[in-house]
């Protein structure tokens, strides 16, 4: 198998981008991107360490949980998780991140690329408190580029159309998956119950 390795080889397959596709890239938040952030409950964060090992992690919260600090800076609160800290370990080594924001039912997405820093600033953590629980930390992203991404991926996948979704019973539970992958002796029912209790106690 021959792989594509140069710009010229790429452009033998793909035409040049349109003027609009190039010009849509902005450097500052404006009314539409701010409104998108205010409605979005979900973001994917792409990062990599200083050796190039990449990671993508989901972050979800109540709509508008990502807040502009100014027209070139946004803040993303962190909540309790599995404490692997894959993304945060990457960020302290390499601050470059790529973000994709989603709004349920909307086929277009907002993309932001920038430089990220993690802070445990008490005032900022408290600003993102939910039910009296402040954020564990806050990711502050200085925007390098932002733009709206077209709907084609969501149209092709029919992601928001429930009639295309597989029946949940066709997939095992997370407890079943973990039990099989780790060859555990504990039952999947016990694992699922433990997961549910963990969600109940530490969602925020």
Automatic annotation (TrEMBL):
InterPro entries from the UniProt entry: Pyridox_Oxase_FMN-dep (IPR024029), Pyridox_Oxase_N (IPR011576), Split_barrel_FMN-bd (IPR012349)
Domain of life, per lineage: Bacteria
Transmembrane segments: none
Pyridoxamine 5'-phosphate oxidase N-terminal domain boundaries: 29-150
Pfam families documented for this protein: PNPOx_N
SUPFAM superfamilies, sorted: FMN-binding split barrel (SSF50475)
The name this protein goes by in its record: Pyridoxamine 5'-phosphate oxidase
């Amino acid at each position: 198998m021959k792989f594509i390795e140069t710009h010229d080889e790429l452009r033998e397959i793909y035409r040049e981008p349109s003027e609009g596709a190039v010009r849509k890239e902005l450097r500052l938040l404006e009314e539409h991107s701010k409104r998108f952030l205010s409605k979005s409950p979900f973001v994917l964060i792409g990062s990599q360490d200083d050796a190039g090992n990449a990671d993508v992690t989901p972050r979800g919260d109540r709509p508008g949980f990502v807040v502009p600090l100014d027209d070139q800076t946004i803040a993303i609160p962190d909540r309790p998780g599995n404490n692997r800290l894959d993304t945060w370990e990457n960020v302290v080594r390499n601050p470059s991140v790529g973000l994709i924001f989603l709004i349920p039912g909307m086929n277009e997405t907002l993309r932001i690329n920038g430089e990220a820093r993690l802070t445990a600033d008490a005032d900022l953590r408290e600003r993102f408190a939910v039910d009296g629980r402040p954020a564990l930390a806050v990711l502050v992203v200085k925007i390098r580029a932002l733009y709206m991404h077209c709907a084609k991926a969501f149209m092709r996948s029919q992601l928001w159309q429930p009639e295309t979704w597989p029946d949940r019973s066709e997939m095992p539970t997370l407890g079943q998956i973990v039990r099989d992958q780790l060859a555990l002796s504990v039952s999947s029912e016990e694992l699922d119950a433990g997961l549910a209790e963990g969600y109940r106690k530490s969602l925020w």
